[in-house]
Amino acid sequence: LDEQKLITLAQQGDQSAFEQLLERYEKPVYHQALRLTGNPEDAADVTQEVFIKVWRSLPSFRRESGFSTWLHRLTDNAAIDLIRREKKRRGDSSLDDEEGGALPPADPAPTPQQTVEQKELQQAVADGLAQLSEEHRQVLVMREINGLSYEEIGQALDLSPGTVKSRLARARISLAKILQKNRELF
Amino acid sequence: MDCDKYLELMSAALDGELTAEERRALDSHLAVCPECAALFRTLSENTKAMRELDCEVPADLKGRIMSSLPRQETPARQGKVIPWKRWVPVAAAACLVLVVSLLPMDKFLPSGGNSAPMSSAESAGVDGSVRTDAAYGEVANSTAEAPQQPTSADNSGMSSEYVVVGTPESADPGEAVSCSFENQRQIRVGYSDDLVAEARIVGSTESLAAYLSQFGTDSWTEQGTPVPNAELETLKELCTEEFFQTRRLLCVVVVSGSGSNRYELAPQGLYRDSVTILATIPEVGTCDMAAWLLVAEVDTLFDDGDTLEIEFVR
Fold it and tell me: What's the pTM?
Protein backbone atom coordinates (compact mmCIF):
# COMPACT_ATOMS: atom_id res chain seq x y z
CA LEU A 1 0.00 0.00 0.00
CA ASP A 2 1.25 3.46 -0.71
CA GLU A 3 1.80 5.90 2.06
CA GLN A 4 -1.21 8.10 1.39
CA LYS A 5 -3.50 5.07 1.62
CA LEU A 6 -1.85 3.97 4.83
CA ILE A 7 -2.35 7.43 6.28
CA THR A 8 -6.01 7.44 5.28
CA LEU A 9 -6.56 4.02 6.85
CA ALA A 10 -4.70 4.98 10.00
CA GLN A 11 -6.78 8.13 10.21
CA GLN A 12 -9.83 5.91 10.32
CA GLY A 13 -8.40 3.95 13.20
CA ASP A 14 -6.72 1.09 11.33
CA GLN A 15 -3.96 -0.08 13.66
CA SER A 16 -2.24 -2.35 11.15
CA ALA A 17 -1.94 0.53 8.68
CA PHE A 18 -0.47 2.60 11.48
CA GLU A 19 1.92 -0.21 12.28
CA GLN A 20 3.20 -0.12 8.70
CA LEU A 21 3.76 3.62 8.95
CA LEU A 22 5.55 3.01 12.23
CA GLU A 23 7.80 0.42 10.56
CA ARG A 24 8.70 2.92 7.85
CA TYR A 25 9.43 5.82 10.11
CA GLU A 26 10.54 4.32 13.38
CA LYS A 27 14.21 4.48 12.49
CA PRO A 28 14.40 8.02 11.08
CA VAL A 29 12.41 9.32 14.04
CA TYR A 30 14.53 7.41 16.54
CA HIS A 31 17.75 8.50 14.85
CA GLN A 32 16.69 12.13 14.83
CA ALA A 33 15.78 11.91 18.51
CA LEU A 34 19.08 10.17 19.29
CA ARG A 35 21.13 12.88 17.65
CA LEU A 36 19.12 15.63 19.31
CA THR A 37 19.11 14.19 22.82
CA GLY A 38 22.41 12.32 22.59
CA ASN A 39 20.98 9.50 24.64
CA PRO A 40 19.41 6.17 23.54
CA GLU A 41 16.90 6.00 26.41
CA ASP A 42 15.68 9.52 25.79
CA ALA A 43 15.53 8.82 22.08
CA ALA A 44 13.30 5.78 22.70
CA ASP A 45 11.03 7.83 24.97
CA VAL A 46 10.79 10.60 22.40
CA THR A 47 10.02 8.10 19.62
CA GLN A 48 7.26 6.54 21.67
CA GLU A 49 5.81 9.94 22.54
CA VAL A 50 5.90 11.04 18.91
CA PHE A 51 4.13 7.98 17.52
CA ILE A 52 1.48 8.06 20.21
CA LYS A 53 0.87 11.71 19.37
CA VAL A 54 0.76 10.84 15.68
CA TRP A 55 -1.80 8.14 16.33
CA ARG A 56 -3.95 10.42 18.42
CA SER A 57 -3.72 13.38 16.08
CA LEU A 58 -3.89 11.59 12.73
CA PRO A 59 -7.61 12.24 12.30
CA SER A 60 -6.85 15.96 12.34
CA PHE A 61 -3.80 15.71 10.08
CA ARG A 62 -4.73 17.74 7.02
CA ARG A 63 -1.74 16.91 4.83
CA GLU A 64 -0.77 20.52 4.36
CA SER A 65 2.75 19.34 4.90
CA GLY A 66 4.22 15.97 4.08
CA PHE A 67 3.71 13.21 6.61
CA SER A 68 7.45 12.80 7.17
CA THR A 69 7.92 16.56 7.62
CA TRP A 70 5.20 16.46 10.22
CA LEU A 71 6.87 13.53 11.97
CA HIS A 72 10.24 15.25 12.04
CA ARG A 73 8.66 18.38 13.41
CA LEU A 74 6.93 16.44 16.18
CA THR A 75 10.19 14.65 16.94
CA ASP A 76 12.10 17.90 17.06
CA ASN A 77 9.51 19.42 19.38
CA ALA A 78 9.43 16.43 21.68
CA ALA A 79 13.21 16.13 21.84
CA ILE A 80 13.77 19.83 22.48
CA ASP A 81 11.06 19.81 25.14
CA LEU A 82 12.73 16.87 26.80
CA ILE A 83 16.14 18.53 26.68
CA ARG A 84 14.68 21.68 28.26
CA ARG A 85 12.85 19.75 30.96
CA GLU A 86 16.04 17.88 31.78
CA LYS A 87 17.95 21.11 31.88
CA LYS A 88 15.39 22.71 34.12
CA ARG A 89 15.42 19.70 36.39
CA ARG A 90 19.18 19.96 36.65
CA GLY A 91 18.80 23.64 37.43
CA ASP A 92 20.71 25.01 34.49
CA SER A 93 20.29 28.74 34.36
CA SER A 94 20.45 29.17 30.62
CA LEU A 95 17.59 27.99 28.48
CA ASP A 96 19.28 28.40 25.16
CA ASP A 97 22.41 26.47 25.56
CA GLU A 98 25.63 28.08 24.56
CA GLU A 99 27.57 26.52 21.79
CA GLY A 100 29.69 23.89 23.44
CA GLY A 101 27.28 23.10 26.28
CA ALA A 102 27.83 19.66 27.70
CA LEU A 103 25.40 16.92 26.86
CA PRO A 104 25.98 13.21 27.17
CA PRO A 105 28.08 12.12 24.21
CA ALA A 106 26.20 10.49 21.41
CA ASP A 107 26.91 6.93 20.53
CA PRO A 108 27.21 6.14 16.86
CA ALA A 109 26.82 2.50 15.99
CA PRO A 110 29.75 1.64 13.77
CA THR A 111 29.40 -0.81 10.95
CA PRO A 112 32.10 -3.48 10.60
CA GLN A 113 33.55 -2.37 7.29
CA GLN A 114 34.39 1.11 8.48
CA THR A 115 38.00 2.08 8.82
CA VAL A 116 39.30 3.19 12.18
CA GLU A 117 39.69 6.74 10.91
CA GLN A 118 36.13 6.91 9.68
CA LYS A 119 34.89 5.56 12.98
CA GLU A 120 36.90 8.11 14.87
CA LEU A 121 35.57 10.96 12.79
CA GLN A 122 32.02 9.68 13.15
CA GLN A 123 32.37 9.48 16.90
CA ALA A 124 33.86 12.97 16.95
CA VAL A 125 31.08 14.32 14.78
CA ALA A 126 28.41 12.69 16.93
CA ASP A 127 30.01 14.14 20.07
CA GLY A 128 30.32 17.53 18.40
CA LEU A 129 26.70 17.47 17.34
CA ALA A 130 25.70 17.02 20.97
CA GLN A 131 27.68 20.14 21.84
CA LEU A 132 26.02 22.39 19.29
CA SER A 133 23.37 24.88 20.29
CA GLU A 134 19.79 23.61 19.97
CA GLU A 135 19.18 25.88 17.03
CA HIS A 136 22.15 24.58 15.07
CA ARG A 137 21.62 20.96 16.07
CA GLN A 138 17.98 21.03 14.93
CA VAL A 139 18.76 22.08 11.38
CA LEU A 140 21.87 19.97 11.02
CA VAL A 141 20.13 16.80 12.24
CA MET A 142 17.19 17.35 9.93
CA ARG A 143 19.53 17.94 7.02
CA GLU A 144 22.29 15.37 7.58
CA ILE A 145 20.52 12.63 9.52
CA ASN A 146 17.04 12.86 8.04
CA GLY A 147 17.99 14.24 4.63
CA LEU A 148 15.26 16.87 4.59
CA SER A 149 15.35 19.60 1.96
CA TYR A 150 15.67 23.28 2.88
CA GLU A 151 11.99 23.67 2.22
CA GLU A 152 11.00 20.73 4.40
CA ILE A 153 13.23 21.92 7.22
CA GLY A 154 11.64 25.34 6.85
CA GLN A 155 8.18 23.82 7.11
CA ALA A 156 9.14 21.78 10.14
CA LEU A 157 10.73 24.67 12.00
CA ASP A 158 8.67 27.58 10.70
CA LEU A 159 11.65 29.12 8.95
CA SER A 160 12.09 30.43 5.44
CA PRO A 161 14.30 28.31 3.16
CA GLY A 162 16.74 31.23 3.10
CA THR A 163 17.03 31.18 6.88
CA VAL A 164 17.51 27.43 6.82
CA LYS A 165 20.32 27.86 4.32
CA SER A 166 22.20 30.44 6.34
CA ARG A 167 21.57 28.64 9.63
CA LEU A 168 22.94 25.41 8.17
CA ALA A 169 26.07 27.27 7.09
CA ARG A 170 26.57 28.66 10.59
CA ALA A 171 25.85 25.28 12.14
CA ARG A 172 28.49 23.60 10.00
CA ILE A 173 31.07 26.22 10.86
CA SER A 174 30.22 25.90 14.57
CA LEU A 175 30.53 22.15 14.39
CA ALA A 176 33.91 22.42 12.67
CA LYS A 177 35.09 24.77 15.42
CA ILE A 178 33.85 22.43 18.13
CA LEU A 179 35.62 19.47 16.53
CA GLN A 180 38.79 21.53 16.24
CA LYS A 181 38.55 22.50 19.92
CA ASN A 182 37.87 18.92 20.97
CA ARG A 183 40.92 17.74 19.03
CA GLU A 184 43.09 20.29 20.80
CA LEU A 185 41.74 19.18 24.18
CA PHE A 186 42.43 15.49 23.74
CA MET B 1 39.70 38.86 0.78
CA ASP B 2 36.16 38.66 2.00
CA CYS B 3 35.97 34.97 2.75
CA ASP B 4 32.82 35.16 4.87
CA LYS B 5 30.55 35.43 1.90
CA TYR B 6 31.81 32.06 0.65
CA LEU B 7 30.84 30.22 3.84
CA GLU B 8 27.21 30.00 2.84
CA LEU B 9 28.20 28.91 -0.66
CA MET B 10 30.37 26.14 0.78
CA SER B 11 27.48 24.94 2.89
CA ALA B 12 25.04 25.08 -0.02
CA ALA B 13 27.57 23.20 -2.16
CA LEU B 14 27.49 20.35 0.36
CA ASP B 15 23.73 20.21 -0.10
CA GLY B 16 23.94 20.37 -3.88
CA GLU B 17 22.05 23.64 -3.77
CA LEU B 18 24.41 25.85 -5.82
CA THR B 19 23.51 27.41 -9.11
CA ALA B 20 26.08 27.03 -11.87
CA GLU B 21 27.12 30.62 -11.38
CA GLU B 22 27.56 30.19 -7.63
CA ARG B 23 29.54 27.02 -8.26
CA ARG B 24 31.92 28.88 -10.53
CA ALA B 25 32.33 31.71 -8.02
CA LEU B 26 33.08 29.26 -5.23
CA ASP B 27 35.52 27.22 -7.31
CA SER B 28 37.49 30.28 -8.38
CA HIS B 29 37.70 31.46 -4.79
CA LEU B 30 38.82 28.08 -3.47
CA ALA B 31 41.51 27.99 -6.15
CA VAL B 32 43.14 31.13 -4.77
CA CYS B 33 42.36 30.89 -1.03
CA PRO B 34 44.08 27.97 0.72
CA GLU B 35 42.31 28.70 4.05
CA CYS B 36 38.88 28.40 2.51
CA ALA B 37 39.94 25.38 0.50
CA ALA B 38 41.08 23.68 3.72
CA LEU B 39 37.87 24.65 5.49
CA PHE B 40 35.80 23.29 2.63
CA ARG B 41 37.65 19.98 2.85
CA THR B 42 36.96 19.81 6.58
CA LEU B 43 33.29 20.65 6.14
CA SER B 44 32.98 18.02 3.41
CA GLU B 45 34.55 15.35 5.60
CA ASN B 46 32.34 16.26 8.55
CA THR B 47 29.27 16.18 6.36
CA LYS B 48 30.20 12.81 4.93
CA ALA B 49 30.78 11.42 8.42
CA MET B 50 27.47 12.78 9.65
CA ARG B 51 25.53 11.34 6.74
CA GLU B 52 27.08 7.95 7.42
CA LEU B 53 26.05 7.93 11.07
CA ASP B 54 23.80 5.03 11.81
CA CYS B 55 21.92 3.77 14.80
CA GLU B 56 20.23 0.68 16.04
CA VAL B 57 16.63 1.05 17.09
CA PRO B 58 15.80 -0.87 20.29
CA ALA B 59 14.17 -4.14 19.23
CA ASP B 60 11.22 -3.78 21.58
CA LEU B 61 10.38 -0.19 20.69
CA LYS B 62 7.76 -0.95 18.06
CA GLY B 63 6.01 -3.37 20.38
CA ARG B 64 6.09 -0.84 23.19
CA ILE B 65 4.50 1.77 20.98
CA MET B 66 1.82 -0.49 19.52
CA SER B 67 0.84 -1.79 22.92
CA SER B 68 0.47 1.68 24.37
CA LEU B 69 -1.72 3.27 21.71
CA PRO B 70 -4.48 5.27 23.33
CA ARG B 71 -7.89 5.82 21.86
CA GLN B 72 -7.69 7.89 18.74
CA GLU B 73 -8.99 11.42 18.94
CA THR B 74 -11.96 12.40 16.85
CA PRO B 75 -11.20 15.16 14.35
CA ALA B 76 -11.37 18.70 15.61
CA ARG B 77 -14.91 19.93 15.42
CA GLN B 78 -15.69 22.75 13.12
CA GLY B 79 -17.99 25.56 14.04
CA LYS B 80 -19.84 23.81 16.79
CA VAL B 81 -21.88 26.11 18.95
CA ILE B 82 -20.42 26.24 22.38
CA PRO B 83 -22.58 26.86 25.38
CA TRP B 84 -20.39 29.68 26.58
CA LYS B 85 -22.27 32.02 24.36
CA ARG B 86 -24.89 31.99 27.06
CA TRP B 87 -22.48 33.47 29.46
CA VAL B 88 -22.75 37.05 28.53
CA PRO B 89 -25.97 38.59 27.41
CA VAL B 90 -24.19 41.53 25.89
CA ALA B 91 -23.56 40.28 22.41
CA ALA B 92 -20.98 42.85 21.54
CA ALA B 93 -18.81 42.10 24.49
CA ALA B 94 -15.91 39.94 23.51
CA CYS B 95 -14.94 39.80 27.09
CA LEU B 96 -16.42 40.39 30.44
CA VAL B 97 -14.52 41.79 33.27
CA LEU B 98 -15.34 41.99 36.87
CA VAL B 99 -13.56 44.59 38.81
CA VAL B 100 -12.56 43.36 42.15
CA SER B 101 -9.99 43.61 44.78
CA LEU B 102 -8.25 46.83 44.11
CA LEU B 103 -5.09 47.05 46.03
CA PRO B 104 -3.51 50.48 45.92
CA MET B 105 0.09 49.56 45.80
CA ASP B 106 1.51 50.50 42.48
CA LYS B 107 3.79 53.39 43.15
CA PHE B 108 5.20 53.48 39.66
CA LEU B 109 2.13 54.24 37.69
CA PRO B 110 0.27 57.53 37.82
CA SER B 111 -2.12 57.55 40.72
CA GLY B 112 -5.71 58.64 40.52
CA GLY B 113 -8.11 57.42 37.91
CA ASN B 114 -10.91 55.11 38.66
CA SER B 115 -10.72 51.42 38.36
CA ALA B 116 -13.61 51.39 36.00
CA PRO B 117 -14.54 48.08 34.49
CA MET B 118 -12.66 47.39 31.32
CA SER B 119 -14.63 47.57 28.19
CA SER B 120 -14.39 45.03 25.49
CA ALA B 121 -10.75 44.79 24.80
CA GLU B 122 -9.52 46.55 21.74
CA SER B 123 -6.16 45.94 20.31
CA ALA B 124 -5.93 49.33 18.67
CA GLY B 125 -2.49 50.75 19.05
CA VAL B 126 -1.01 47.34 19.38
CA ASP B 127 1.96 47.21 17.17
CA GLY B 128 5.41 45.81 17.30
CA SER B 129 6.16 42.70 19.21
CA VAL B 130 7.49 43.06 22.70
CA ARG B 131 7.73 40.50 25.38
CA THR B 132 6.96 42.92 28.12
CA ASP B 133 6.98 46.56 28.81
CA ALA B 134 8.30 48.42 31.76
CA ALA B 135 5.24 50.64 31.70
CA TYR B 136 3.14 47.86 32.99
CA GLY B 137 5.68 46.15 35.08
CA GLU B 138 6.08 42.44 35.00
CA VAL B 139 2.80 41.52 33.50
CA ALA B 140 3.35 37.88 33.97
CA ASN B 141 5.99 35.53 35.05
CA SER B 142 5.27 31.91 34.67
CA THR B 143 7.86 30.62 37.02
CA ALA B 144 8.24 33.22 39.71
CA GLU B 145 7.51 31.99 43.19
CA ALA B 146 7.28 35.46 44.64
CA PRO B 147 4.75 38.02 43.55
CA GLN B 148 5.90 40.51 41.00
CA GLN B 149 6.41 44.03 42.15
CA PRO B 150 5.83 46.68 39.57
CA THR B 151 9.16 48.01 38.57
CA SER B 152 10.68 49.79 35.68
CA ALA B 153 13.77 47.70 35.87
CA ASP B 154 15.15 46.21 32.72
CA ASN B 155 12.98 43.34 31.65
CA SER B 156 15.13 42.20 28.81
CA GLY B 157 15.98 38.96 30.52
CA MET B 158 12.39 38.09 31.16
CA SER B 159 11.83 35.80 28.26
CA SER B 160 14.09 33.25 29.83
CA GLU B 161 11.61 32.98 32.67
CA TYR B 162 8.94 31.67 30.40
CA VAL B 163 9.77 28.06 30.49
CA VAL B 164 7.94 25.56 28.37
CA VAL B 165 7.23 22.64 30.63
CA GLY B 166 4.36 21.09 28.76
CA THR B 167 4.40 19.14 25.57
CA PRO B 168 1.34 20.26 23.67
CA GLU B 169 1.41 19.64 19.99
CA SER B 170 -0.27 21.13 17.04
CA ALA B 171 -1.83 18.55 14.79
CA ASP B 172 -0.81 20.56 11.86
CA PRO B 173 2.74 21.81 11.59
CA GLY B 174 3.29 25.42 10.81
CA GLU B 175 -0.11 26.47 11.95
CA ALA B 176 -1.63 27.98 14.98
CA VAL B 177 -3.74 25.58 16.98
CA SER B 178 -7.41 26.10 16.41
CA CYS B 179 -9.01 28.15 19.10
CA SER B 180 -12.45 29.60 19.48
CA PHE B 181 -11.49 33.09 20.39
CA GLU B 182 -15.06 34.29 20.30
CA ASN B 183 -15.48 32.31 23.43
CA GLN B 184 -12.61 33.80 25.28
CA ARG B 185 -13.35 35.37 28.61
CA GLN B 186 -11.51 37.85 30.69
CA ILE B 187 -12.29 37.48 34.31
CA ARG B 188 -10.75 39.84 36.75
CA VAL B 189 -9.72 37.92 39.79
CA GLY B 190 -8.49 39.22 43.07
CA TYR B 191 -4.82 40.02 43.05
CA SER B 192 -2.95 38.13 45.65
CA ASP B 193 0.66 37.67 46.58
CA ASP B 194 0.36 33.95 46.02
CA LEU B 195 -0.78 34.19 42.45
CA VAL B 196 1.57 32.60 39.98
CA ALA B 197 1.20 33.98 36.49
CA GLU B 198 1.10 31.28 33.86
CA ALA B 199 -0.66 29.86 30.83
CA ARG B 200 -1.99 26.43 31.50
CA ILE B 201 -4.19 23.85 29.86
CA VAL B 202 -6.97 22.51 32.03
CA GLY B 203 -8.46 19.25 30.85
CA SER B 204 -10.81 17.90 33.49
CA THR B 205 -13.40 19.05 35.98
CA GLU B 206 -11.11 18.09 38.87
CA SER B 207 -8.22 20.03 37.40
CA LEU B 208 -10.45 23.02 36.83
CA ALA B 209 -11.73 23.02 40.40
CA ALA B 210 -8.18 22.71 41.70
CA TYR B 211 -6.96 25.40 39.34
CA LEU B 212 -9.71 27.88 40.22
CA SER B 213 -9.22 27.34 43.91
CA GLN B 214 -6.14 29.52 43.75
CA PHE B 215 -8.37 32.51 43.16
CA GLY B 216 -10.56 31.92 46.19
CA THR B 217 -14.32 32.05 46.13
CA ASP B 218 -14.83 35.49 47.57
CA SER B 219 -12.71 37.74 45.50
CA TRP B 220 -15.35 40.36 44.77
CA THR B 221 -14.40 43.05 47.16
CA GLU B 222 -15.24 46.22 45.31
CA GLN B 223 -17.33 47.64 48.09
CA GLY B 224 -15.36 45.88 50.75
CA THR B 225 -17.97 43.17 50.84
CA PRO B 226 -16.68 39.79 49.80
CA VAL B 227 -19.00 37.85 47.57
CA PRO B 228 -18.31 34.75 45.49
CA ASN B 229 -16.83 35.40 42.10
CA ALA B 230 -19.85 34.49 40.01
CA GLU B 231 -17.84 34.19 36.81
CA LEU B 232 -15.62 31.50 38.25
CA GLU B 233 -18.64 29.63 39.57
CA THR B 234 -20.25 29.80 36.15
CA LEU B 235 -17.07 28.55 34.56
CA LYS B 236 -17.17 25.47 36.77
CA GLU B 237 -20.82 24.85 35.99
CA LEU B 238 -20.36 25.08 32.25
CA CYS B 239 -17.21 23.04 31.96
CA THR B 240 -18.64 19.65 32.64
CA GLU B 241 -17.08 16.27 32.05
CA GLU B 242 -18.85 16.20 28.72
CA PHE B 243 -17.22 19.49 27.80
CA PHE B 244 -13.76 18.13 28.55
CA GLN B 245 -14.35 15.10 26.38
CA THR B 246 -13.96 17.27 23.32
CA ARG B 247 -12.29 20.46 24.49
CA ARG B 248 -9.63 21.83 26.78
CA LEU B 249 -9.51 25.14 28.53
CA LEU B 250 -6.59 27.45 28.06
CA CYS B 251 -6.26 29.48 31.23
CA VAL B 252 -3.87 32.40 31.36
CA VAL B 253 -3.23 34.36 34.49
CA VAL B 254 -1.90 37.83 33.90
CA VAL B 255 -0.64 39.85 36.82
CA SER B 256 -0.51 43.50 36.04
CA GLY B 257 0.72 46.72 37.54
CA SER B 258 -2.51 48.52 36.80
CA GLY B 259 -6.19 47.76 36.83
CA SER B 260 -6.63 49.74 33.64
CA ASN B 261 -4.41 47.60 31.48
CA ARG B 262 -6.29 45.28 29.21
CA TYR B 263 -5.32 41.89 27.94
CA GLU B 264 -6.77 39.49 25.47
CA LEU B 265 -5.68 36.41 23.60
CA ALA B 266 -4.39 37.41 20.22
CA PRO B 267 -6.31 35.95 17.30
CA GLN B 268 -4.14 33.23 15.78
CA GLY B 269 -1.90 33.64 18.78
CA LEU B 270 -2.01 30.09 20.04
CA TYR B 271 0.80 27.73 19.21
CA ARG B 272 1.86 24.40 20.47
CA ASP B 273 4.02 25.88 23.17
CA SER B 274 3.15 29.51 23.44
CA VAL B 275 0.27 31.92 23.51
CA THR B 276 0.30 35.55 22.51
CA ILE B 277 -1.48 38.10 24.64
CA LEU B 278 -2.44 41.49 23.31
CA ALA B 279 -1.86 44.13 25.91
CA THR B 280 -3.46 47.54 25.73
CA ILE B 281 -1.95 50.08 28.08
CA PRO B 282 -3.83 53.34 28.56
CA GLU B 283 -1.98 56.58 29.02
CA VAL B 284 -3.26 56.96 32.51
CA GLY B 285 -3.64 53.86 34.58
CA THR B 286 -4.98 53.08 37.97
CA CYS B 287 -2.59 52.61 40.80
CA ASP B 288 -3.57 49.11 41.80
CA MET B 289 -2.13 45.73 41.16
CA ALA B 290 -4.54 43.54 39.29
CA ALA B 291 -4.88 40.01 38.04
CA TRP B 292 -6.86 38.59 35.17
CA LEU B 293 -7.81 35.15 34.22
CA LEU B 294 -8.15 34.77 30.46
CA VAL B 295 -9.89 31.61 29.39
CA ALA B 296 -10.56 30.18 25.98
CA GLU B 297 -11.42 26.85 24.52
CA VAL B 298 -8.79 24.90 22.70
CA ASP B 299 -8.82 21.46 21.22
CA THR B 300 -7.77 18.22 22.79
CA LEU B 301 -4.36 18.18 21.18
CA PHE B 302 -3.30 19.87 24.35
CA ASP B 303 -3.02 17.81 27.48
CA ASP B 304 -4.27 18.58 30.92
CA GLY B 305 -1.52 20.35 32.82
CA ASP B 306 0.46 21.58 29.82
CA THR B 307 2.05 24.95 30.43
CA LEU B 308 2.61 27.42 27.63
CA GLU B 309 5.00 30.25 27.22
CA ILE B 310 3.40 33.67 27.29
CA GLU B 311 4.33 36.30 24.79
CA PHE B 312 3.04 39.84 24.98
CA VAL B 313 2.46 42.20 22.13
CA ARG B 314 1.05 45.65 22.26
Answer: 0.53
